[in-house]
Design goal:
With 398 residues, this protein is of the alpha/beta class. It is built from 5 helices and 14 strands. The protein is flat and about 115 Å long.
């Protein structure tokens, strides 16, 4: 993870279609063989596909030009050219793809489903297609269609259920190393963690969730101080935030001050982060500051509507309880998210049903109006016919 890259801008181009062929059939004993030019092959597509084994955008940043192969030109004897080879680009899961020129969101890679970014050009038609009764030996064929091209901006956001947020040396790396098989760098100086680390937390009953160690934040990080907002984007995808507050006497801020500053940083970066479900972990309670009363602090945070749990990664105090609580919240958020998706789908279905009913009503209204116009036209014709008959009828006096 030393070369962790989570942003890149690359150029992508699909392959040009192969040109059609203009040729004539020339064989012994066969006169007027006619055209037999084949079609050109289709150009290759540019395809993005998620790969769980790829963890950064380092490879695509080093290869900024990604271009598919062009299609082969058509040949005589009605031979179609070979299709151009597709350019398949493996991407880490969690990559957001946008148009670098317009900023338009294109798609998000969350699984191993392939996404066709650019379609190759169509191959040109050979002169066989242009044979007619008046032009039985056409010398014309189509050129291949050009491929598409685009500058693409890639942004990686790690896929994790829980994001650990805290000041440097708050104990995030130690916690993730304690509860999972991840082995991040751990040391007694600030900014030990320079890249996000992911760990899978195993629980009894074959239950798991993914936890992310986000590099330490400091005051005004959203304004570019320290590591700045370089890794804050990874917090946006998590379902739950776990704030780690250092409880030792060596901490730069008190737990209350640290929580306030961290909330200001998150709100300054993206206001929706403040609405995420969160819990607070009072870390390093095995070496807690003598002036801190855990029960009073729990009650104080509870009055503010916050959950606070004392833990110690060194002694594993409270770790099992907090992991179960995090798993419970993750499941609740997953259910809520699923219900939200279902509600959105139902809303879309209801809107479509309503629009269909409105179209049906408009069609019925148009049909009624048409019938009324037809009826009025018939009545007008009948009136004109009666008037014509009355004008043609001779007077009785004559």
């Amino acid at each position: 993870m030393a070369n962790f890259v989570d942003q890149a801008v690359i150029y992508c181009g699909s392959g040009k279609g192969g040109a059609g062929c203009a040729s004539m059939r020339r064989e012994k004993f066969i006169e007027f063989g006619g055209p037999n030019g084949g079609d050109g092959g289709k150009g290759g597509d540019v395809i993005f596909i998620g790969n769980p084994d790829v963890t950064t955008l380092q490879d695509v940043r080093l290869h900024k030009h990604q271009k598919a192969k062009p299609g082969q030109a058509g040949m005589g004897e009605n031979k179609t050219g070979k299709q151009g080879e597709d350019k398949i680009i493996p991407m880490p899961l969690g990559t957001i793809v946008t148009n670098a020129d317009t900023g338009e969101f294109l798609f998000e890679i969350l699984d191993e489903t392939p996404y066709v970014l650019l379609t190759g050009g169509r191959g040109g038609l050979g002169n066989t297609h242009f044979k007619t009764s008046r032009n039985q030996a056409p010398r014309y064929c189509q050129p291949g269609e050009p491929g598409e091209e685009m500058d693409v901006e890639l942004e990686l956001r790690v896929l994790a259920d829980v994001g650990l947020v805290g000041f440097p040396n708050a104990g995030k790396s130690t916690l993730i190393a304690t509860v999972s098989a991840a082995r991040p760098k751990i040391a007694d100086y600030p900014f030990t963690t320079l890249v996000p680390n992911l760990g899978v937390v195993p629980l009894p009953g074959f239950r798991t969730f993914v936890i992310a160690d986000i590099p330490g934040l400091i005051e005004n990080a959203h304004l570019g101080v320290g590591l700045g907002d370089q890794f804050l984007r990874h917090v946006q995808r998590t379902k739950v935030l776990a704030f780690l507050l250092d409880s030792t006497e060596f901490a730069e801020h008190t737990p209350e001050e640290a929580f306030k500053i961290l909330m200001e940083v998150l709100e300054g970066f993206a206001p929706e982060l403040a609405a995420k479900k969160r819990i607070i972990l009072l870390s390093k309670t095995d070496a807690i500051h003598p002036d801190i009363n855990i029960e009073e602090m729990i009650a104080e945070f509870k009055e503010k509507g916050e959950e606070l749990y004392p833990i110690s990664s060194a002694t594993r105090k409270g770790m099992d309880k907090i992991m179960e609580r995090l798993y419970q919240i993750v499941q609740e958020e997953a259910v809520a998210e699923k219900e939200k998706v279902i509600a959105e789908k139902r809303k879309v279905a209801a809107d479509m049903k309503k629009a269909y009913a409105e179209r049906q009503e408009a069609a019925a209204e148009a049909q009624r109006a048409y019938i009324e116009r037809q009826k009025a036209a018939v009545e007008k014709l009948e009136a004109e016919a009666e008037k014509s008959e009355s004008d043609e009828k001779p007077d009785s006096d004559e």
